[in-house]
Every structure is written in structure tokens, then in C-alpha cells.
């Protein structure tokens, strides 16, 4: 579970990227964060995982404050950033072992997880190649595998489907569903409204640093009668704000 309480972030003393935002990502739910370019989605996710510090407010992950108790808080989640170009000179298996060492994953458990995810993402044959030689989609898959290697209860994913081939995108979406069926939580940002509409339990709509809606799709439709698609509602809610 992620608890976000009144967080704000200002860049350069003038640009308010996030403005007093409060919401929860509950266990057993997939929450999609959607919004126009520059709305503040990535800034919010970077504050949740501790890359950026909020100017005010608090963030707790499974009860651990990301600022005052960062090591324990970071053990609770797996994070996939929006740029998969990391550790390019390592082989895929070296990167996964590095992530396993970082999170204290036993040899037996990491081998098991690498086997499972390698099959699901069709990456087993590429693990002994350098990440530098991977396509964008393959780099995205190895980063996802590394983030999930320690079986975290909370998944935080920034545009995780970008660059994935249809089969791998399907597998990751299925993994999200399986994860929340076990009573765990997923929050991900996306520009693909159809994915949010079909996959998520709740949506957080952000525009110009402010949370303009947080709740279920049914509630969103109830508050916007006459609009059937998430796309139409999204355009209506972010127009002119």
C-alpha cells in the first residue's frame, strides 16, 4: 500500500510540478496514473520511490516513510523508470545478479525468478548478451525483470509497456493482475488510455500538478454522465485546466 499525503514539488522556485497531492494505492488494486505530457506523473512516481524529495507532505510504503526510513521503504517496492537505458555494458544476467545482490535475493530464489520471467518475456536466450546490444523493447524487459526479481509487494511502473512487443505487453499485464489477486498493489503511469480502461481498478487523473480525479472507473462515469469512453472523459476533465 502507498499512502501519499499532501505532497508538493516546485522546480526552480517557480514551477509547481506537484501541488498538494493526496491519494492512496491500496493492496489488491491496480491504479493507473494518467495525464497530459508535463502533468507531473513522473515527478509523483519519482517522489514515491525516493529519487526526488517532496518539498512538503509525506509518502509511506507499507507503513515506511520514504524520507525518514528510506532503506526499509525501498525494500517494499520494485520500480521501473521511463528510461531503460541502464548498465548497458553489463550482460543481462550480470544485471539481474546485480539486482539480486542489491536486494539480498538468495541464489536459489533468483534462479527461480529468472527462469520464470525469462520464459514469460522470451529473454532466456539473450541473458548472456550485453544490454548494449538489446533493442529498446529488450532493455525494457530486462529492467522489468530486475525490478521484480525480489518479489516486491508494491510495483511502481513508469510507462512500463512502452517498447514492449504485444506478447510481452500481454504477459506484463497478466503479471499485474496476478500480483493484485495475491493482495498486493500496482501503480503505473500510461499515455494509453485503453490500457488503463481495461486493466486498472482505479485511475488517478493528474493535470498541471494537481489531482483532478481519483477513484474507480464506475465512479468516473457516474460523475460524467453521457460519456462512455475514458478518452472523452479525460479530454473533458483536462481541457482548459
UniProtKB/TrEMBL annotation:
InterPro entries: AAA+_ATPase (IPR003593), ABC_transporter-like_ATP-bd (IPR003439), ABC_Transporter_VariousFunc (IPR051782), P-loop_NTPase (IPR027417)
UniProt xrefs under SMART domains: AAA
Single GO molecular function: ATP hydrolysis activity
Pfam family for this entry, one: ABC_tran
Superkingdom to which the source organism belongs: Bacteria
Domain spans labelled ABC transporter: 2-233
Keywords: ATP-binding, Nucleotide-binding, Transport
Transmembrane segment boundaries: none
Keyword Nucleotide-binding: yes
PANTHER family linked to this entry: ABC TRANSPORTER ATP-BINDING PROTEIN ALBC-RELATED
The name this protein goes by in its record: ABC-2 type transport system ATP-binding protein
